[in-house]
Write a structure and sequence with these properties.
Order of helices and strands: HHHHHHHHHHHHHHH
Number of helices: 15
Number of strands: 0
Structural class: mainly alpha
Radius of gyration: 20 Å
Shape: globular
């Protein structure tokens, strides 16, 4: 925030280091959120240089997709000041990024698919199950994982950038903003309809079902954090919640999606506050 040279330097250093690529995406997001798309574009162009070299050498565009996606989401949030719209756009950007990955990273994708099929064979053997996963099924699964992973990564970088902005210029504002994230009944119903449509045509569209849950999960996480904040619970509760999510992912994840739907249709925050009054 001291100026373009500092932002460019920090971005170049972070994107040049494999384990710090995420930091460059968050920096670009911060610049766009605070100074606008023109200044953000200048920093973005420099950030793409080391990532472009990596893409040329390895053939993996995931870092470039995450960077560009984060920049797009930061611009959307700056213009609309709406997390609901930003979450909806995140689904579209991640879906497009998955298609780009499928078309451009064929060699990398082939290696991942081969590894995934071997892993599933070993797992099936341990569980004494018959049947083998086809290449097409494995590819769709990998691309589905890629899409949802990219969505959460972009949103995580955006959240970090927004938190930085809040701490620098309006301390404490991000917490209140995040707690109020809630998707409207229109968006939640649209997501459910799209998931049902993808389920019916699961062979062609099944890989998009996990991605469509992203806005619901983010909304549910915001509600959980709001409850913890209003109850003034300690950080141990937050740690315990995410540990539970990690350990019992297959159980907690659909419960969070259901919670988001209920909150979307019935506005649980308002009902809880009205009962307390």
């Amino acid at each position: 925030m001291r100026g373009r040279p500092h932002a460019v330097g920090a971005t170049l250093i972070s994107t040049s280091l494999p384990l710090l690529n995420w930091l460059g995406s968050a920096i670009v997001g911060l610049v766009i959120l605070r100074k606008g798309p023109v200044e953000g574009l200048m920093v973005l162009m420099w950030a793409l240089m080391p990532l472009g070299i990596t893409l040329y050498l390895i053939g993996d565009p995931s870092s470039v997709i995450a960077l560009l996606g984060t920049a797009i989401l930061a611009y959307v949030l700056r213009v609309t000041v709406s997390w609901e719209i930003t979450l909806a756009i995140a689904v579209l950007v991640s879906a497009f990024g998955s298609l780009v990955f499928e078309l451009t990273a064929t060699d990398v994708l082939a290696v991942i698919v081969e590894w995934y099929m071997e892993y599933m064979r070993q797992l099936a053997g341990q569980l004494q199950q018959t049947g083998e996963l086809s290449v097409a099924e494995a590819k769709n699964s990998i691309l589905g994982f890629f899409a949802i992973g990219q969505a959460y990564a972009m949103l995580a970088f955006l959240v970090l950038a927004r938190w930085w902005q809040s701490e620098l210029y309006n301390p404490g504002a991000f917490g209140k903003e995040f707690h109020q994230i809630r998707i409207s009944p229109v968006l939640s119903t649209t997501l459910v309809v799209m998931m049902l449509f993808c389920f019916v045509f699961s062979e062609q569209l099944g890989r998009w079902i996990p991605l469509l849950t992203v806005p619901l999960i983010v909304s549910a996480l915001a509600f959980v954090h709001w409850v913890m904040g209003t109850r003034k619970l300690s950080g141990n509760w937050v740690f315990g919640f995410y540990l539970l999510l990690l350990l019992l992912f297959q159980v907690v994840y659909p419960l969070l999606a259901s919670l988001a739907l209920v909150d979307s249709w019935f506005n649980l925050r308002t009902r809880i506050q009205s009962k307390e009054v």
